[in-house]
Design goal:
Oligomer: homodimer
Strand order of the largest sheet of chain A: 1-2
Number of strands of chain A: 2
Order of helices and strands of chain A: HHHEEHHHH
Largest sheet of chain A: 2 strands, antiparallel
Radius of gyration of chain A: 22 Å
Distance between the termini of chain A: 45 Å
Strand content of chain A: 5-15%
Chain lengths: 192, 192
DNA sequence: GGGGTCATGTAATAGGTTACATGATTCT
DNA sequence: AGAATCATGTAACCTATTACATGACCCC
């Protein structure tokens, strides 16, 4: 187990899952992957076992049950402890209060937009806008379906946030395209 | 040198810097750090030398000059090659056209907002909104200063994008706070 | 004279990913 | 019968970070 596995960014995701219900690691993996499309980052099993081990050592998670079906490998169900729940709340609280510097790939690309030249830049941005539209539509479909299925809004609030982010990016991208087309965003030569 | 150092996410940043002017690695580091507050992620020298070595091997970057001042260690100035410039354009183009799944820390936190309970959630979100306001103000000051100093808008366009993102997040956060306060965002018990 | 910056090179460390190994169950 | 899934455990590998090593120059 890595020494500071507790600093692993997936720790919050694991604690969050265990808040919902006790689980064995393989199930966590399945959950994370099924929601992963828009919620969690990809985790692999190697890291996951390390994290769980570290969480147990920290006392935030404890063995809840051991089950055996037939001759399958015994599966160990883990559950949040009280301390784990407190830690989860502490981390959530901190991550909400203090915005991290979220450096996206797109921000890095935009900072060298000049290198593409006006036509290619406008073209690329247009394609992006289209793809973002599709993404918003997909998010909205999922959200509507969940709400129609009776899931409380609080439990899908992050979808609303994601939609908000993508929407505002679309607006920005489209405004830049327009400015390139009208020439109000000037293109200095040797732009970089 | 790592085998796929060319896949390193900092490659684009290095190519972008070299598009502006030839440089030696130490200077790249200084540039990245000085802009780093809102532009580039932190790079350390170990990785940087690996990247430069890989870029040279790929033919995207070549030794431009070797300079020696007094008895200081000789510094090697690298410059973009034509192939390197093409690669930069190719990567920029792709990164703009195809939006990556940008999973932020905040998105992960929001998805477990329920665990904080309504009061603490509203409180934490309020603090975040305040900090985001400060960040917008700082970005705007920098942007205004750059523009006043004669920098073409195209070269600071990424600051406009960053401001747009933060602004829209503030709007969203404030709307959620309001909904928590008025009770229109219901809080199911045992929320997680 | 001491501390900080300029500038590089390289080895050690530790983390995450990938792959190997095992074996039962279920579906086609 | 073969493939895919369930479920774990562990070792190898590769990458990035960190630290060590070197030495000149500049400012106080």
């Amino acid at each position: 187990m890595p020494r500071n596995a507790l600093e692993n960014p997936h720790v919050l995701a694991v604690l969050g899952l265990l808040l919902e219900q006790p689980m064995h690691p393989y199930q966590m993996l399945a959950e994370l992957r099924s929601r992963g499309e828009d919620r969690a980052a990809a985790v692999n099993r190697g890291s996951l076992y390390n994290i769980v081990e570290a969480l147990v050592a920290a006392g935030w998670v404890a063995v809840h049950d051991r089950q055996r079906e037939g001759n399958r490998p015994e599966r160990t169900i883990y559950a949040l402890t009280t301390a784990g729940r407190e830690e989860l709340v502490r981390r959530l609280d901190a991550q909400i209060r203090i915005p991290a510097r979220e450096l996206t790939e797109f921000l890095g690309a935009v900072s060298h937009l000049g290198a593409l030249g006006p036509d290619r830049a406008a073209d690329a941005l247009t394609e992006r806008a289209g793809r973002l539209q599709e993404r918003v539509a997909a998010h909205e479909r999922n959200l509507a379906q969940a709400l129609a299925g009776g899931v409380p809004r609080l439990f899908v609030i992050e979808a609303e946030y994601a939609i908000n982010c993508v929407r505002s990016e679309i607006t920005w991208v489209e405004s830049v395209i327009e400015e390139i087309r009208t020439g109000s965003l000037a293109w200095p030569t040797a732009a970089g």
